[in-house]
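Final report, closing paragraph on structural work. Over the funding period we assembled a curated collection of sequence-structure pairs, and we close with a single example.
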Amino acid sequence: MPWNNTNPFAYHSVGMITGAPAASGVYGIYNAQQWIYIGESQNIQARLLQHLNGDNPCIARLNPTSFMFELSPDHQRVARQNQLILEFPTACNQRLG
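Its predicted structure, as stored:
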């Protein structure tokens, strides 16, 4: 199943502060060539800012340009993240099963 929200946002602090909610959901980070990382968080905005500040060297190394997200309840986040990773393989997520 594709992303529920296909609005892209710029991968920089202003894009994250104005575009990403401080709410539960999943997010994807990418550039023009590839999906870099798909994650889940209780607070999408805070987690994206952590990535921007270099908490994951793989993400930083691949020069992300954009992100997107979709809201998801706590109890569905991990399953939705895993579903998206299977559909959109990434460079920095560990491979599933």
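The chain is about 35% helix and 20% strand. The chain has a mean pLDDT of 94. We thank the funder for supporting this effort.
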